[in-house]
Write a structure and sequence with these properties.
Blueprint (H helix, E strand, L loop, with lengths): L11 H14 E3 L6 E3 L5 H17 L3 H8 L14 E5 L6 H11 L3 E6 L4 H8 L5 E6 L7 H13 L4 E4 L14 H28 L3 E5 L3 H4 L5 H21 L5 E7 L5 H7 L4 H10 L7 H12 L10 E4 L13
Parallel strand pairs: 3-4, 3-6, 4-5, 6-7, 7-8, 8-9
Antiparallel strand pairs: 1-2
Length: about 325
């Protein structure tokens, strides 16, 4: 996930209001190939907002995050996925899913991108790499039968599936008492039911290949975030699914893990950052002792958990950029 989570946050109303304004102006759907801009937010205005927020975000990014942002997938020095086929759901041109696809292809994988909309920029970027390959398959995870048809297309093309990354997700921000039933149902269908159905559909192929599943959950599922109750609930369900499937599928040599990112610099968060006061931003920084993450940071963790390097790891929900803490006014010097 690319938001924030911390049980000790104060002045939660300010953060909820800010995020709600950002959400209504800029709804980023991780199922899609990019952001949906709703009027009156024109492209030039988005660019202005992104520019205003970039310095603030990058000033709190960790050194390793900044380095990873500058590192091209071409520089990957390992081929951990050579000869393997991976499915990444919901990969977008500029988000976490796109970075995951970049990383897996750079390490030799053939990657199938499943989403409702074609990520043209991502596919063009991957085409320039000298390792692996990628193709896009249209898939609306809420449509009956769509997942089965998409997976059949993958098998027809590659005859194999070794890795599944359940990255698709949608969110709605706002106070809990304004949550609409249809928004809740859509988040449940995409974030949790979609991951469950996708995993169930590829299970026979994963069982043949000692496969791995990596679910992209959220730090909000581990600590709670005001204004994201429904989203957090669906991602907490994903963690429960991860742990139960890890235990159930271990005898079939299938590993299942999850990553739980805190705030990551994506287009939605860049817009979100422009809505915050300095006080609110200080609260966010206190939640991220290692700085704000980059999509490449999440991709690195996903690639590790999907690889043979993690062959003895299953059932974990790995926090990224965030940790539970109970701050006390005590000297550590």
């Amino acid at each position: 996930m690319d938001l924030l989570s911390n049980n000790s946050l104060s002045n939660a109303g300010t953060l909820v209001d800010a995020f709600s304004r950002a959400y209504h102006n800029y709804h980023f759907d991780f199922m899609s190939s990019g952001p949906y801009l709703s009027p009156p937010l024109a492209k030039t205005e988005l660019e202005r907002l992104e520019g205003a927020a970039a310095e603030r975000l990058m000033s709190t990014s960790s050194t390793s995050s900044r380095s990873s942002a500058k590192t091209s997938p071409k520089r990957a020095t390992t081929s951990r996925f050579e000869g393997q086929v991976a499915i990444v759901t919901g990969a977008s041109d500029r988000g976490i899913g796109g970075a995951i696809a970049d990383r897996l292809v750079a390490e030799g994988a053939s990657v199938c991108l499943l989403s409702p909309h074609r990520p043209d920029q991502l596919l063009d970027r991957i085409e320039e790499l000298e390792t692996g390959d990628a193709r896009w398959i249209e898939c609306d995870f809420c449509e009956p039968g769509a997942i089965e048809i998409a997976v059949e297309a993958v098998v027809d093309e590659y005859a194999n599936i070794d890795v599944l990354v359940n990255n698709s997700g949608v969110d709605t921000a706002g106070s809990f008492d304004t949550l609409k039933d249809e928004d809740w149902q859509r988040m449940l269908d995409v974030n949790l039911t979609g991951a469950l159905r996708m995993t169930r559909t590829v299970l026979p192929m994963l069982a043949k290949n000692r496969g791995a599943v990596v679910n992209v959950a959220s730090a909000s599922a581990m600590g709670g975030t005001p204004g994201l109750a429904a989203y957090s609930a669906t991602k907490a369900g994903m963690i429960g699914l991860t742990q139960s499937l890890a235990a159930e599928l271990a005898p079939r040599n299938i590993r299942v893990n999850a990553v739980c990112p805190a705030m990551v610099k994506t287009p939605m968060v860049t817009q979100y950052a422009t809505q915050l006061t300095s006080e609110s931003w200080e609260q966010i920084k206190s939640c991220h002792p290692l700085g704000i993450g980059m999509p490449q940071d999440v991709a690195a963790a996903v690639a590790f958990l999907a690889s043979a390097d993690a062959r003895w790891i299953s059932g974990i929900a790995l926090p990224l950029g965030w940790m539970p803490s109970f701050p006390l006014p005590m000297s550590t010097g």
